[in-house]
Design brief:
Layout (H helix, E strand, L loop, with lengths): L4 E4 L3 H9 L4 E4 L5 H7 L6 E4 L8 E3 L5 E4 L4 H5 L2 H6 L1 H8 L4 H6 L2 H6 L5 H4 L16 H4 L22 H8 L2 E6 L2 E6 H4 L18 E7 L8 E6 L10 E10 L2 E10 L6 E2 L1 H7 L6 H11 L11 H18 L3
Parallel strand pairs: 1-3, 2-3
Antiparallel strand pairs: 4-5, 5-8, 6-7, 6-8, 9-10, 10-11, 11-12
Helix pairs in contact: 5-10, 12-13, 13-14
The protein binds iron/sulfur cluster.
Length: 329
């Protein structure tokens, strides 16, 4: 591990000031991903700004509706919070399907959004080709092993997938990320927070390097009664998704009034299937309806040789997740 300067900030402004004044400085919260990347030599910040004492751990109702999740609330505390369990069970399920209990006890909400891909070519600097780690070197996965990689929204430069489960549920629930930097505070809709790789796969998000995540804000949700997060993985105990689906239905007189479908494990960002959602509006919740939506959701998928199986897997996972969400199994 490279040597680095350590600073502790106890207030938002002090944390931002310490980032702005430090070349290649990074915020340190739970550190469950960043410290691994530093040990491997994938990231080499010259300064860590420890923000664990900044008061951003509250989970509280937003006046007028919705819920504010503090950026530094731990994933376990968020998943088990009574208001999350009652009004956003989809989010609770998604968080609890990620990582291990020990990691969830340490990992924060803001850090969860900022975790980096687990593409093995990215995680190990012994592999020379990785455009995300070293722009312009090529993509080792595209030419090598890519069984776990993207089938939607990828580019010639990068086919990595985003590893978060929590972010998939947040995409389905239409969350926003509240951030603050030297220019002040702003809201980033979750759909615009993570980026597709394009020609700059080294940039994962639209958060600026000097911006601090303050909270994740959830709008009021009509989906609490009918939602399900389904994660398919190689190892049930502890693994990243091959495919995951956050499915939510708003029912009215036995028909689907509105729906949300977001996929994980298939793209560089949580993948919202809005055309598939539109197909469900006004329909009866049955197998034929759900299969039509699943087919639409995978329209445009561009698999490589080793990950073509994800198309069928994703379709089946969507149908199953919608079936469980609708209580029609
Ligand atoms: Fe790097 Fe992306 Fe290719 Fe993986 S998929 S080797 S992260 S460029």
């Amino acid at each position: 591990m490279n040597s680095f300067e350590y600073k502790r900030a106890e207030q938002e402004q002090a944390a931002i000031d310490a980032i702005v004044s430090g070349k290649d400085a990074k915020f340190l919260a739970g550190g469950t991903n960043l410290i691994d990347l530093m040990k491997n030599g994938v990231q080499t910040p010259s300064r860590l700004v420890d923000i664990n004492r900044v008061p951003l751990t509250n989970i509280e109702a937003i006046p007028g509706g919705g819920l504010r999740l503090g950026a530094l609330a731990r994933n376990s505390d968020t998943a088990n919070h009574p208001l999350v369990r009652k009004n956003y069970p989809l989010l609770s399920q998604a968080i609890l399907s990620g990582a291990s209990p020990q990691l969830r006890n340490l990992a924060t909400n803001g850090g969860n959004l900022l975790q980096r891909t687990r593409c093995p070519y990215f995680m190990d600097p012994a592999f020379p080709k990785c455009n995300k780690r070293s722009p312009g070197t090529g993509c080792g996965a595209r030419e090598g092993i890519h069984r776990r990689h993207a089938i939607l929204g990828a580019s010639e430069q990068c086919i990595a997938v985003h590893p978060s489960d929590m972010a998939v549920a947040l995409a389905a629930l239409g969350a926003s990320v509240r951030v603050r930097g030297p220019k002040g505070e702003r809201m980033i809709p979750i759909a615009d927070f993570h980026r597709l790789p394009g020609t700059t796969p080294q940039v994962d998000t639209n958060l600026q390097p000097d911006e601090l995540i303050l909270s994740i804000d959830l709008p009021q949700s009509p989906y609490a009664a009918h939602s399900h997060y389904l994660k398919i993985r190689d190892r049930a105990s502890y693994d990243f998704a091959l495919v995951s689906v956050a499915a939510a239905l708003e029912m009215q007189s036995g028909s689907i009034k509105s729906s949300r479908i977001a996929l994980g494990g298939v793209a560089h960002k949580p993948w919202r299937a809005e055309k598939a959602e539109a197909l469900l509006a006004g329909k009866q919740p049955n197998a034929a309806t759900f299969e039509a939506a699943a087919t639409e959701a995978l329209n445009g998928a561009q698999p490589l040789k080793q990950n073509a199986y994800k198309i069928e897997l994703a379709k089946h996972t969507i149908v199953r997740a919608l079936t469980l969400a609708g209580g029609v199994a």
